[in-house]
Design brief:
Shape: elongated
Largest sheet: none
Number of helices: 2
Low-confidence stretches: none
Structural class: mainly alpha
Radius of gyration: 17 Å
Order of helices and strands: HH
Number of strands: 0
């Protein structure tokens, strides 16, 4: 019984956190219409004065996202030091 209650509590807390986090992140999240690994200039205006950038992805290990991450980090390290 304790295990079932603990499991339910974890699910409820997880859903509460995710719903709060998603609303806050929508202000700052930028989506992609297409993967263009060589062009991130659309971020320049949004990154003026920003010192820390968060990056997340829906899929871990997919080749496209690995490539995108690599190119994005290269761009950020060259253009936004």
């Amino acid at each position: 019984m304790k295990l079932v209650l603990t499991f339910l509590l974890v699910i409820i807390l997880n859903n509460l956190c995710n719903s709060q986090c998603n609303n806050e992140l929508e202000k700052y999240a930028v989506g992609f219409d297409a993967l263009k690994v060589n062009s991130f200039t659309f971020l320049d205006d949004k990154l003026k004065g920003v010192r820390v950038v968060g990056y997340g992805e829906d899929t871990h290990g997919a080749f496209e996202f690995t490539t995108l991450t690599e190119e994005l980090m290269k761009y950020l390290s060259k253009k936004h030091r």
